[in-house]
Amino acid sequence: MAQWGFPGDPHVRPVPETLGAADKAQAATRERRWLIHCHPVIARDAYGVARYQYAVPGCEYGIGGE
Fold first, then answer.
1. By the 8 A CB rule, do 56 and 38 touch?
2. Residue 64: its pLDDT value, please?
3. Angle at 32 between CA 28 and CA 34, to 5 degrees
4. Which domain holds residue 49?
5. pLDDT tops 70 at residue 65
6. Which residue of 26, 41, 48, 63 has the lowest C-beta tally within 10 Å?
7. Is residue 2 scored above 80 in pLDDT?
8. Residue 47 lies in a domain
């Protein structure tokens, strides 16, 4: 029997290394700027499902706040 592709369990994901203090501060600054720029709010649709709405187009894809 032949195996194609990478050996091992395809569902195993590597765990990223922990962030240092500078990286944590940079990530917090990016998130804060994104929140201020995109202003996400949760609103219920006609069926009662909670959905995020954003003040700026493209924020639903994680862009913005630059």
1. yes
2. 62
3. 115
4. 40-66
5. no
6. 48
7. no
8. yes
Q: Does the residue 2 lie in any domain?
A: no
The angle subtended at Cα 56 by Cα 32 and Cα 40, nearest 5°, is 50
Measuring CA to CA, how many Å separate 65 from each of 6, 20, 61?
38, 23, 12
The C-alpha R_g of the chain, in whole angstroms, comes to 19
Flag whether pLDDT at 1 surpasses 70: no
At 3-38, the pLDDT tens digits run: 565 667 778 888 888 889 999 999 999 999 999 999
Distance CA 24, CA 6 (A): 33
- Tokens matching residue 25: 């501060």
Q: How far is CA 7 from CA 11, 12, 38, 56, in A?
A: 11, 11, 42, 44
Classify residue 34: in a domain, yes or no.
no
